[in-house]
Automatic annotation (TrEMBL):
It comes from the Bacteria. One of its GO terms (cellular component) is cytoplasm. Residues 3-127 form the PTS EIIA type-4 domain. PANTHER family: PTS PERMEASE-RELATED-RELATED, PTS SYSTEM MANNOSE-SPECIFIC EIIAB COMPONENT-RELATED. The lineage of its organism: Bacteria, Bacillati, Bacillota, Bacilli, Bacillales. InterPro entries: Bacterial_PTS_sugar_comp, PTS_EIIA_man-typ, PTS_EIIA_man-typ_sf, PTS_IIA_man. It is found in: Cytoplasm. One of its GO terms (molecular function) is kinase activity. SUPFAM superfamilies: PTS system fructose IIA component-like. This is PTS system fructose subfamily transporter subunit IIA. CDD domains: PTS_IIA_man (cd00006). Keywords: Cytoplasm, Kinase, Phosphotransferase system, Sugar transport, Transferase, Transport. The keyword Transferase applies. One of its GO terms (biological process) is phosphoenolpyruvate-dependent sugar phosphotransferase system.
């Protein structure tokens, strides 16, 4: 069994709310936390909070996987800055299929590389364009 923790960092309450939605589907989860960059909050304050969580995870023997909303945004930049200090895995573009897949397998898949590749593929394949022609199938 793998020892991992998931940290979701997003603009606004998106990360907090997507976790609530995932837990509505899958039930309460262990080692799953979220941070929100709120209007008026400094990036330095967000970095400090993220650093504390990742440091706590390391002390508890947990590998951290970070999910962020947007590559190049402040949450991803904060996450990237933590790579200088910690051995992390960061996935950008969080969506519900990605989070559900990660929560399903993050404690059982031994190789983190395989887990990340699967979750990344699920996130991308979870995006569909639906219109009236979909109803005719």
């Amino acid at each position: 069994m793998a020892n991992r923790a998931i940290l979701v960092i997003t603009h606004g309450e998106f990360g907090i709310e997507i976790i609530k939605s995932a837990e509505m589907i899958m039930g309460p989860q262990n080692n799953l936390r979220a941070l929100a960059l709120r209007p008026g909050e400094s990036v330095d304050a967000l970095r400090e909070k993220a650093n504390e969580i990742v440091e706590e995870n390391e002390k508890n023997g947990l590998e951290t996987i970070l999910l962020v909303d947007l590559l190049g945004g402040s949450p991803s930049n904060v996450s990237l800055s933590l790579l200088c200090k910690y051995d992390l895995h960061i996935l950008t573009g969080i969506n519900m299929p990605m989070l559900i897949e990660l929560l399903t397998f993050y404690q059982t898949v031994e190789e983190t590389k395989n887990l990340i590749e699967t979750v990344q593929g699920t996130g991308a394949s979870g995006i569909h364009h639906l219109n009236r022609s979909f109803l005719k199938k």
